[in-house]
Write a structure and sequence with these properties.
Layout (H helix, E strand, L loop, with lengths): L4 E3 L2 E3 L2 H6 L5 H14 L7 H12 L4 H11 L3 H10 L11 E6 L2 H19 L12 E6 L11 E3 L2 E3 L4 H11 L1
Helix pairs in contact: 2-3, 2-4, 4-5, 6-7
The chain binds FE2/S2 (inorganic) cluster.
FE2/S2 (inorganic) cluster (FES) binds next to helix 6.
């Protein structure tokens, strides 16, 4: 059975475990999550880290995962839910293979970020906070990521694209498929 690893105070899921997460049964995923919670001493102060790990294991945080965390940590479900809904990086819905996030911070907004967002909506046929039917793309909006000098910026998963404009969107997304 896979077990999480405690490294320098940070609990890590091994690369192998992360890759295997796609093929693991739910029972195995819950077992790993239980080990994570044990490693974090069931402490409420570690709830955000535990939610991060749970999202890495399951891909998102559905109700049954929230219930499991609440029960294991002796917290109310509303407490768990209030924390995860406060932070935009947590999702209660399955995400696509690629998370496309356009920055609408001030610099990006005034340099055309909204036009890029509209183009993304058109091309993907989806809205902010939702995922395309083929589960390839989730669309998000974010605030400044520190690339203001080359605004507008967007991210696809961990990769930053700078000085994007509506004409570049088809090509960027096309390269991903
Ligand atoms: S406002 Fe978009 S990167 Fe700073």
């Amino acid at each position: 059975m896979c077990k999480s690893n405690l490294i320098g105070g940070l609990i890590m899921i091994t690369k192998e475990e992360a890759c295997n997460a796609l093929t693991m049964t739910d029972e195995e995923k819950f077992q790993i999550l239980q080990n994570v919670i044990i490693d974090y001493d069931h402490k409420e102060t570690n709830l955000i880290q535990i939610l991060h790990m749970a999202q890495a294991i399951f891909g998102y945080l559905p109700a049954e995962v929230q219930r499991f965390i609440a029960a294991e940590m002796d917290l109310s479900i509303s407490k768990v839910n209030s924390v995860l809904t406060f932070y935009s990086f947590f999702s209660t819905k399955p995400k696509g293979k690629y998370t496309v996030a356009i920055c609408l911070g001030t610099a990006c907004y005034v340099r055309g970020g909204k036009d890029v967002l509209n183009k993304l909506k058109d091309v993907l046929g989806t809205d902010v906070g939702t995922t395309t039917e083929d589960k390839m793309f989730s669309l998000q909006v974010m605030r400044c990521i520190g690339a203001c000098g080359l605004a507008p910026a967007m991210m696809v998963n961990d990769k930053v694209y700078k000085q994007v404009n509506p004409n570049k969107i088809q090509r960027i997304l096309g390269m991903l498929k």
